[in-house]
Amino acid sequence: MNISMNEFKAALRRCFEASGYFVGNYEDAANMVLWLEKHGLNGLKELKQALPYIYEDRNKPLSNVIYEDSTSATIDAHNRSALNCIAAAVDLAHAKALESGIATVTVHNCHNRMFVLKALTDRGRSGISAAAYWQNGSKKVTEHTAAIGSGKRYPSYSEGITNLTNSQNDKQALTIICSSRVDITSSLQSSASRFISSEQIEKNKQHTVEHGIEIEPEVWAEVNRIAAGVLVENTAASKKDAGGR
Fold first, then answer.
1. Confidence (pTM)
2. Cα–Cα distance between 95 and 85 in angstroms, integer?
């Protein structure tokens, strides 16, 4: 089925709000999903994988910094989705890069890391060169890299299969690098098994704007089923307030 981007975003906001995401977080999460899908990077596929688990984030500890100095930080996301925590991690790397020129933030125990691309793009557009790197899999490890140059509007993305083995300590880790002094996008190699240029990502956006978003009816129904929790909570709160007057 085909839906408009505005309708999709509104439903996502309600879905994440009903799942216990804080004000601001559910806006970030909705924008991350929409951005990936709008730019041809399988936002709906990533969302489909995340939906069964997003409600569990409310019962997990908040992300916390376990090491920090002037140019780096290490964050434990406590097995949260990137939808719920990654924007703040990118903001931290951005702030450190403004102060020190270059900064690295590593996030451990973070799922759905593909959603970092929206936050990276925001940093690039604000005048910072930014990149993110992560690995998926254990027996067959794939490397993922996204990067955007300072002042650019769109990032590039690569994915490649490696001969590496992923250790237990490295699982669900994501490294973010930001720099206000040097262009770090050269780390993205077009020789990867899958490479999507910034020009292609821009074309994907134009196509989506013209044709809308195609979503599986089952996924759309699940998003709206979860989102209905906002209406239930608001109705219950309204009745409670009315009874107290």
1. 0.88
2. 16
Q: How is residue 33 written in tokens?
A: 């999903």
Q: How far apart are CA 20 and CA 122, in angstroms?
A: 25
Element (H, E) at 146: strand 142-148
Whether 151 contacts 144, CB under 8 Å: no
DSSP 52: T
pLDDT per position as a tens digit, 126-177 = 999 999 999 988 778 889 999 999 999 999 999 988 776 666 556 799 999 9
What is the rounded CA–CA span in Å between residue 198 and residue 201?
5
Stretch 194-207: mean pLDDT = 94
| CB of 22 closer than 8 Å to CB of 233 | no
Please report which residue ranges of the chain form alpha helices under DSSP H. 5-18, 25-38, 43-50, 82-100, 116-125, 198-211, 217-243
Task: In whole angstroms, give the CA distance from residue 135 to residue 163.
Answer: 12
Token pair of 38 as six digits: 């709008």
Residue 67 pairs in a beta bridge with 74
Q: What φ, ψ does residue 107 adopt, rounded to 5°?
A: -110, 125
- The answer to whether the CB of 120 falls within 8 A of the CB of 148 is yes
Instruction: Take residue 193 and report the two structure tokens written for it.
Output: 């098994």
